[in-house]
Amino acid sequence: MMQVADPANGAVEYIDGFVIPEVGDIDDWKKADEFITIIENKHGLEEGSLSMSVIVECGESELATGELRTEMGKPSNNLERLFLLVDGQVDYTKAMQAMTATGKLPPWPELRHNTSRGASAAGLIAVDGPYDDIRDIEGYYERMSDNRAKGMTGIWSLTPGQVIAANEAPLPPESGSWLLNVGNREIELDSENGYQSYSGDELSLERTNDGSYLLEVEGETHELDGEELHEELLKMTSYIPSMDDIVDSMSEFEAAKEDGKGAIAMTQSTTLDINGVEVDVNKDRMWDEATYQAAQTPISLFQDVYTHRPDQHEEIEEMYGSDVVERAMALGDDD
Known about the structure:
With 335 residues, the chain is of the alpha/beta class. It has helices spanning 26-42, 59-64, 68-71, 89-95, 109-122, 137-149, 160-168, 226-236, 243-258, 289-308, 313-320, 322-330; strands at residues 17-20, 51-56, 82-87, 125-128, 154-155, 177-182, 185-188, 190-192, 195-198, 203-207, 213-217, 220-224, 237-240, 264-274, 277-287. A hairpin with a 2-residue loop joins β11 and β12. α6 packs parallel to α7 and α9 (243-258) crosses α10 (289-308).
């Protein structure tokens, strides 16, 4: 680190900081911080200018994540330089003396939760470790989706294919989509001429002569009137908002907040086409400050990417449209 950060070698201006592996309890974190402070002083760099990211790969470092909130900011250390907490499942598995029948790594959901919790409490970013089945891109996407549900923003990439997937996955989609939840499966519906169409075998819908409906789900048939069918389909459907949807909703809430409203109702509506039978579905969702802040997470990530990666501006604007990008960048701007 001393050599890499030496201004005479011409690299330090391109370096944000260092990733420190093999740390244990909180004293190890402080030692790593002290090393970086020494480097900054040695080379005449501003203290705190080099960030520090830590790989959580043993029980001691996992427990230390719970101490960061009280340790950061003490005059005896510069732990405010912390940036990322990164899971290291391979060494963690070794340290925990864990075994699986196949020799594969355990999924370690507890480690990922604890790392995310520690990062959130200390104002840091949580990143998952490597997904070593490098040919399983679908599994990589699923892992990232599960991570985002735990509050983990990033994931290690081991191959060019994983890099592409990791860069695409966290940002809101270009267009919204409806999901139909059948059993333990989420099926993305086909959008055709304003309708959301399903034509599979797990679900069927038939309208009877008396105006009621026969809804068959996984071999079980239910006779429902129109209102009952609507309520049942509400339970079975969910919506993935696009970037445009999120921007519109947040902008509408910001305007309502300026008018003194603490909460507003947002409506999502579509027409489902299930085996040729059409049903209108309307979902109402209450938006308050907590909802707004939750929606801010992907927008903040987008704003960060757009601000720091000017080389991606053309691609991003082509995907979302320049108007959506402009409005997204203005969200949360008090000016």
